[in-house]
Design goal:
By secondary structure, this protein is an alpha/beta fold. The protein has helices at about 20-25, 35-40, 45-50, 50-60, 65-80, 85-105, 115-130, 145-160, 180-185, 200-205, 210-225, 240-250; strands at about 1-5, 10-15, 135-140, 165, 170, 205, 230-235, 255-260, 270.
Length: about 270
């Protein structure tokens, strides 16, 4: 097993197993030229989020797990050095990034190291940049989510540095408080069968749900450490939303609720 470091302000990691690492190291790659990278350069900061599918596809085509994330990370740094967005636009970008992460997980047809590397590097850098400008996100997701998509949603948020809270027991983990590094290592333990729809009905044990108070306490702990937070209920087996929304309204966080199908672009802003 290998941990390939992706240098961001909080040092996130993209996981590569031995088989994939060997393949990536021996594959013929397309030359990554400045002209090529200039063609990929976003025209606006929202392109970084809007074009996630495109960037990950290009990473796969070039068999290059680092160049595009590093280029986009540099673009993010230069953009915010030159342009000062007002609070409203910063909040809109944070909402877009959170919701795009879920919608990508809900519709993605392929989960691989290129996907994880993108979120561990580019999304993490963008979250750090937004938080440095005073925007903290609390994303509340209440949808019927197929369990393989649920696992992917957790993984993509976590590798991006977002604290994930759910009322379920997942792979024998009761989802107690974890640092960014601890949570990343945990979600990178998810293996292939956890994303296989043929197996998803047995990969998650929700028979011992956390009590409502435990969920609220966990959210408060992450808030105390000023972590971006994603709270996820994947079905109607539990419903702690009233208490979760209450704490959201009382917080300094930008809080949004998504309870529509992923095809619907609308979310409900609880507070700003």
């Amino acid at each position: 097993m290998y941990l390939v470091s992706i240098k961001t302000p909080l040092m996130k990691y993209a996981y590569i197993d031995e088989h994939d690492f060997a393949i990536i190291c021996t594959m013929k790659t397309k030359p990554i030229t400045k002209i090529y990278m200039d063609k990929l350069k976003p025209k606006n900061i929202t392109d970084v989020v809007d074009n996630i599918d495109f960037y990950i596809s290009e990473m796969r085509k070039t068999k290059d797990i680092k160049s595009i994330p590093e280029s986009l990370g540099q673009y993010i740094w230069e953009y915010f050095r030159e342009i000062e967005l007002n609070k409203e636009k910063l909040i809109s970008l944070a909402i877009f990034l959170a919701d795009r992460t879920y919608r990508y997980a809900a519709s993605s047809g392929e989960v691989d190291n290129f996907t994880r590397a993108f979120f561990a590097s580019v999304a993490a850098t963008l979250w750090d940049t937004l938080q440095a400008r005073g925007v903290d996100m609390f994303y509340i997701l209440d949808n019927e989510i197929r369990e393989d998509r649920f696992m992917l949603t957790i993984q993509l948020f976590a590798v991006s540095g977002v604290a994930v809270v759910t009322p379920y027991t997942i792979k024998e983990n009761y989802h107690e408080y974890m640092t960014i590094e601890e949570q990343v290592k945990w979600v990178l333990s998810f293996d292939g069968k956890d994303f296989d729809p043929k197996n998803y009905t047995i990969t998650i044990d929700s028979s011992e749900d956390l009590r409502n108070m435990e969920v609220i306490d966990l959210i408060k702990k992450y808030m105390k450490h000023t972590r971006n937070i994603a709270y996820i209920e994947k079905d109607d087996s539990v419903n702690y939303l009233d208490e979760v929304i209450k704490i959201a309204k009382e917080s300094k966080y930008t809080c949004v609720l998504r309870n529509h199908a992923p095809e619907d672009p609308n979310v409900t802003v609880i507070n700003e």
